[in-house]
Amino acid sequence: MSQIQIQTTQNVVLSFAPASVGDRILAHVIDWIIFIAWFLIFALVHSSMGSFLSSGKIGMVFFFVIMLLPVMLYDLLFEVFMNGQSLGKRAMNIRVLALDGTPPTLGAYIMRWMFRLVDTGIFGSMVALIVAAVNGKGQRVGDIAAGTVVVKLKQIVSLKQLNQEKNQENYVPMFLEVSLLSDRDVVTIRAVLKKAKDENNRLLVWEAAQKVKQVIGVQSDIDDMKFLQQVLQDHTYLMTVG
Asked: 155-180, pLDDT tens digit by residue?
């Protein structure tokens, strides 16, 4: 599957790999295991409160609010409040991004959620699988409509593992999210910093910093130049330990 590339007005190019169909299937399976566990919990609660919940409107409201509504809103709420990840996506280390590399808007998340019925409801997951397989960016119908894509994140090394390393044992990375950047992105950032220093181009540094923040999903108030330098240091460390 090809890399997705983003080019800014200052010719800063960032790229990332779409999640594979297999990763998305496994994430979906994990989410369904969570649904099944939720149904079982509901069944146990219902059986323990049988006579009360079996009565007319109370039972219907309980069934809808406690069992169906959380399942219906699961993908939307988790992706909105967990930075583009359901529990299944987090387990598979994949995440939803907008096609320009920024976090999706609320409207984009809602659009993806609304099209889930087309992708996975009417014909099972057949439509989603076919569209994602033939689409060069691995998008299902909901992604195409919302202008989003699910990307594969690199494995993040835990702080516990980092502290156990013999080399650079006193170094603690500030931004673990830099693992989202590809090697090509890092080369680009280095080139941008060199060009900015040679030309004293603060605009180039600012735009590069903003794009990197959007791609890795972090906010920082430190100077843009220092931010990019910190990103390079953190990336180098995370890619060399373990």
From this structure: 444 444 444 434 455 678 888 888 88
